[in-house]
Give the backbone structure.
Amino acid sequence: MATPRLCSIPNCGNPVKGHGWCGMHYARWRRYGDPLTLKKTADGDVQRFFKEVVLTHDGDDCLIWPYSRATSGYPQMRDKGKLRQVSRRVCEHENGPPPSSKHQAAHACGRGHEGCVNRKHLRWATRRENQTDRIKHGNWGWKLPEETVREILSLKGLLPGKEIAAQFGVSRSFVSQLFSGREWKHLTSGQAPNGS
């Protein structure tokens, strides 16, 4: 059995749950967008940052969202009582409404899962176009070492996908795609997870 990885926060020493952090630091990152944040940010501060910084940002570099994120890493915020993806709101503001309800906010930079909300990086794309972008940018699990992917596959049916995703710092969507054989096909097409 492998030695558990430890939290990357200095002097923490607890086992990793996701994104290189222990459960506590990972939960803070999910809730507040920063593993070191101790208290919740007021919704007014979030709304102000969205309006005064995100919607007016004119730089070409990624603008990283400093607040709450979904487990996939994508920024989120409350809008009229509902939790919404920030990238989608920015894309609507910059490019108008989506051409259809199935269109997604796609990031030209490939860093949406890292919190980028730069309006210049966003456009509407179909699911297929967005997945093609993810593969092009290496953001759909392709950067994981094969050994890690095999370890994830070995947990199929033993743990819920949500727990597996958190443990390895990947999205639940990636785990689902992996288990269904749509990702890392050379490992999932008839081969046992241990490579035998």
